[in-house]
Amino acid sequence: MKKRLVIILATVSALVLAGCSLIKTKPDVENPNPVEPQSQVVTVKPSENPNDYEGPGDEFPGGLDDDGRGDEEVDASSVVMEQITDLESDMMSAKVTGYDEDGNELWTYETKQDHTPQLDPFKEIGLFGRQYIFVAWGEVISLDIANGLENWVNKDFNGYSVCFTTDYEGDTLYLCGYFGPDLFVMDLEGRTINKVGVADEDYYWPYEITWENEHAVKIKYESNEKELTLDPLGDAVQ
Question: Which pLDDT score, from 0 to 100, does residue 233 have?
Answer without folding.
Answer: 86
